[in-house]
Amino acid sequence: MRQTMAQLPYHYGVKLRIFPSAEQKRLIKCNSDASRFIYNEMNGMNRELYRLKQVKIPIALVQQRIQTLKQRLKHPATGISNLHGWLNDHELDSLMKANAIKNYHNAWKLFHKVHHAGTPAFHKRRTEQTYQTDCLYARKVQTPNMLTGSVRLLDQRHIQIPKLGHLRFKGFPDKLLQNAQVIRIGTVTLSMDATGRYYVSLQLASEQPFVITPKQATHGKIGIDLNLDNFLTDSMGNVVANPRYYRSMRGKLAKAQRKLSRRATRAKKEHRLLRKSANYQRQRLVVANLHRKVANQRHNFLQFLSTTLIKNHDLVVAEELRSKNMLRNHALAMSISDVGWRTFLGMLAYKADLYDRKFITVNPRNTTQTCSQCQFVMGTDETHKLTLKDRDWTCPRCQTHHIRDWNAAKNILAKGLASA
C-alpha cells in the first residue's frame, strides 16, 4: 500500500524562483484571487451563522437561513461554487479550492489549540499573491517521485504545474536533483512577493535522509547566549557580532518611505486609485526592494550561522526566548525585531533533526545573574542584580571575574546538560 506524505519519515522544503509568462502571471492572479475569495466566503458564512444563533426567538426565516448556512459549510466546495458560478471556470485549479477550504479549517484548529492568533480573519487584497495546489499521482504509477506526478520536474530548469504548464525556474539544489527518483512532491505553493518576483515552494518527502549525517562533531557540546550587544556568545568564549542589517538601511528606507507617502497623498488628493497611480507604484517597488534586501541579508546570515553550529556540535543549548513579550519594551523593540532570534531558534530546531544532532532550549531564568563557578546568584545576600550596563562583573563569593555573556552561555550549557 502506498504511503502518504505524512507517513514518510523524512521531510524537506524548497523554494524556487520561477519566471512565468504574461499569461501564466494572469492565471496565478486569478487562482490567488479565487483562493482568497473562498477563504473569505467561508469566514463570512461562519460569522453570520454565529450571529444568527444568538437570536433566541424562533423566527422561521432565521431558522431557515441557519439551515442553509450549515448545509453550505458542510459541503463548501459545491455550496460556494453553486452560488458563485465563476468559480467553476476551467482556468481555476480545483485543488486550489480544496486547499483554501483546508486552510480555513486549519486556522480554526490552530485557534482551538493555542488561542493566541484569534479567530480566522478576512484576507485583504494585497500586492502579494499566493495559492496552494497538490501533486497527484496516478494509480498506475508504481514509484511516485518528482518526475511522475501532476507537478513534476521536466529537466534541471523547467517544472510542470497544473493549469500553468511549463515554468522555468532556478535554484534547485543539486543533491535533490540527483535523488529525484526517490523524492515525492506534496503541497505546492505559488506566490508573488511585493517586488513582483514569483516563487514556487515544494513540500518534499522521502524514505531516505535528505542529507548525509556528518561524523561525530569534534567540538562536542555548546551553549549559546543570544543578546543585542553581540548576536551571540558561546560557552567557549567565541563572539558573533550583531550585523544590524535594518539599522544600516534605516536611513535609505526612511527617505524612500517619505517619498512614497507624499506620492500617496498626492494621488488621494487627485482622487486616483493607488493601484493605478504609476508614480506611487514605482516608489512602492523601491521601498519593497529595500525591505527585501534587508530580509535576504538577515536570512542568509541566520542560515549560515545555524548550519555551522549544528554541523559542528553534537549538542546545542540555547535559552528559550519569548520575543512577543520582549517586544513590549518600546526601547528595544526595533533591535529585537532586527536581530531575528525567533527565526534563528526555529532554524536550529529543524536543522538538528535534519543533521541528526540534538538541540534543546532551557529557561533563561538567572542565567545572567548566576556565577558559573560557585553558583552564587546576584541579588541575594544583600547584593544588587546586574543591569544591562554591567558587561563584566566579579563574583562576591569566589572572586571570579566574569564576562557577562560568556558566563551566561556557560550557565545555559550547564542547564542543558542537566536536563538532557
UniProtKB/TrEMBL annotation:
Domain Cas12f1-like TNB: 341-412
UniProt domain Transposase putative helix-turn-helix: residue ranges: 13-50
GO biological process entries: DNA recombination; transposition
Domain Probable transposase IS891/IS1136/IS1341: 213-329
Coiled-coil positions: none
Key words of the record: DNA recombination, DNA-binding, Metal-binding, Transposition, Zinc
Pfam families: Cas12f1-like_TNB, HTH_OrfB_IS605, OrfB_IS605
UniProt KW Metal-binding keyword: yes
Lineage: superkingdom: Bacteria
Gene Ontology MF terms: DNA binding
Record bears the keyword Zinc: yes
InterPro entries: Cas12f1-like_TNB, RNA-guided_DNA_endo/Transpos, Transposase, Transposase_put_HTH
Family recorded in the similarity comment: In the N-terminal section; belongs to the transposase 2 family.
NCBIfam families, alphabetized: guided_TnpB (NF040570)
Entry protein name: Transposase
Organism: Levilactobacillus spicheri DSM 15429
